[in-house]
Amino acid sequence: MTARPAAALLRLLWLASPALPVGGFSYSEGLEAAVDAGQVHDEASTRRWLIDQLHLALARSDLAVLLPAMQAWQALDGDRLQTLNNWLLQTRESRELRRQTEQMGRSMLEWLRNLDPAAAAQDPALALLAQLRPAPSWPVAWALAVQRSNPPPEPEEALLAHAFGWAENLVQAALKAVPLGQSAGQRILAALIEELPAAVDTARRHADDAIRQSHSPMLAILSARHEAQYSRLFRS
Fold first, then answer.
1. What pLDDT digit, counting tens, does each position of 64-94 carry?
2. Going from the N-terminus, what domains does the chain have, and what CATH number goes with each?
3. Closest alpha carbon to 167 in 21, 4, 18
4. Which listed residue, of 32, 92, 205, 215, carries a Cα 20 to 30 Å from 63's Cα?
């Protein structure tokens, strides 16, 4: 990877931050249900769960779509973007996981519009994002935000940033749901950071439509249970 201009690097960090106002902090992506089921209960089980989720779910779905989505945004290829968006929504295995990606996608659209409302009204890319049906998914919307950087990041940089934002957000969810202390959370985050390059390599290998897959049955079962869980902190 080549050195990035400071402004471009800072924008990438900004887009990857869990503090971005798209609602990511309100989701645990099945972790809270795993805690309720007793599968996640301490630092070691949390670390194991999140590393498995990184490799078996995120790397093969959201991260795998980011690269072709960035390429499609560069070409403003609406048909390709709708195909990628359809795949993401169709492979969400529970209602709440689908609603999460739709809600965050819509929120990213509104955030991009609000950065410059006057220009947004004439922006063909934002118009295309708004036209994705039934709603823009979070990875496809995030890919547009990244592609609008000047200059756009290298694919590996974008995937690493997105994966780190996911990891940081899920660790924060674990601190509340398990619960864990801050030091334990930082040790888990350090372990996840070690795994991110391998996850990005997997994502790049699965970027082609013919081999992309997303199948995590235990996560799907727990997510479905979470929809009716008696007491919840998170929306997923």
1. 999 999 999 999 999 999 999 999 999 999 9
2. 30-226 (1.10.4190.10)
3. 18
4. 32
The b-or-e profile of 150-161 (16+ CB within 10 A means b, else e) is eebbebebbbbb
Which residues have CB under 8 Å from 22's CB, separation 6+? 104, 107, 108, 111, 138
Residues near 196 by beta carbon (within 8 Å), at least 6 away in sequence: 54, 160, 163, 164, 167
Per residue in 110-152, pLDDT (tens digit) is 999 999 898 888 899 999 999 999 999 999 999 999 998 888 8
Q: What sign results for the dihedral spanned by CA atoms 18, 23, 25, 31?
A: negative
pTM as predicted? 0.94
Is the omega angle on the peptide bond into residue 217 within 30 degrees of 0, that is, cis? Answer: no
Q: Residue for token digits 């709440």?
A: 96
